[in-house]
Design brief:
Elements: E1 5-8, H1 12-23, E2 31-35, H2 38-48, E3 51-54, H3 60-65, E4 70-73, H4 80-87, E5 96-99, H5 106-110, E6 119-123, E7 133-139, H6 145-155, E8 159-163, H7 169-177, H8 179-196, H9 201-219, H10 226-233, H11 239-249, H12 252-274
Parallel strand pairs: 1-2, 1-4, 2-3, 4-5, 5-6, 7-8
Antiparallel strand pairs: 6-7
Helix pairs in contact: 7-12, 8-9
């Protein structure tokens, strides 16, 4: 398998993955990227030293994919099949095609690629930008363990990698894919609560942001247990225990469960809408 990696559609998520790969020591000369505009292509080339071209040149995706060992499809979900079909004629039999687009099943991608082409579906999240991402991978029908390992090696440069079945991917997206937004929402709510208690807005935001970030670092321990960490902060009959009791009385767990269920349901709807 060639060691060249092509990122077709290098938006914020693909850029984060590419940056992590380069930080790990992967040679910039073996990375290609395609983007929509020449300005963005020039910026990527100047910033990372990779070969970047704009799809204003209609052959950009084909040239980037030719001879690549891994091709990362980072375009919008509605364009995944179109781009996959575009590059199909130039893919080597062992080129691993990795999709980072949500809501596009493996079978839909495999259907427009050469028979037997290895495909891996991924579900990364935004903390990949700072090396603390979570990426779930699903192996396609023709992806062997070495193919899957090649994809794992790429995503491991930006955080934790787990392997799941495809029927679990929407649930994974509802927890880790959308999860950062839930945490940011909690930080917003904490800051707002601090303001209502009389704190200046800037101070309340700073306290909330750093508290959430610090709590995340505590959870980063492989042996960390969220429930045990919560109990350690909650002294019997203390103020924290009173706050947790208020959350429980108002059904916070049910609210979180309802939110993740809604996210999973919407992911399935989007898949259906995309056909």
């Amino acid at each position: 398998m060639s060691t060249t990696i092509a990122f077709l559609g290098c938006g914020s998520m693909s850029e984060a993955i590419m940056a992590g790969l380069l930080r790990s020591g992967f040679p910039a000369g073996q990375v290609r990227a395609t983007v929509r505009t020449t300005a963005r292509a020039a910026w990527l080339a100047d910033t990372y030293g990779v070969t970047a071209t704009a799809t204003e040149d209609t052959d950009a995706n084909v040239r980037a994919a030719t001879g690549a060992g891994i091709v990362v499809l980072g375009v919008k979900p509605g364009l995944v099949r179109e781009v996959a079909a575009e590059i199909a004629p130039v893919l080597a039999p062992d080129t691993v095609v990795v999709s980072v687009a949500g809501a596009v099943p493996l079978a839909n991608i495999e259907a427009v690629l050469p028979a037997g082409q290895p495909v891996v579906r991924s579900m990364p999240n935004t903390p990949a930008r700072v090396g603390y991402g979570v990426t779930a991978l699903v192996a396609g029908a023709h992806a062997t363990p070495p193919h899957l390992q090649a994809a794992k090696d790429v995503f491991a440069t930006v955080g934790l990698v787990v392997e799941v079945d495809e029927d679990q991917i929407d649930a994974v997206g509802a927890v880790s894919g959308s999860g950062p937004a839930y945490v940011f929402y909690l930080a917003e709510a904490m800051a707002g609560a601090g303001e209502r208690l009389g704190l200046p807005a800037d101070l309340a935001r700073t306290l909330a942001a750093h508290t959430v970030a610090g709590a995340g670092r505590l959870l980063d321990d492989p042996d960390a247990d969220p429930a045990a960490l919560r109990r350690a902060v909650s002294s019997p009959n203390g103020s924290t225990e009173r706050a947790i009791a208020a959350f429980e009385e108002r059904g916070m767990r049910d609210v979180v469960a309802a939110g993740t269920a809604a996210a999973e349901a919407r992911a399935k709807e989007i898949t259906h809408e995309l056909g």
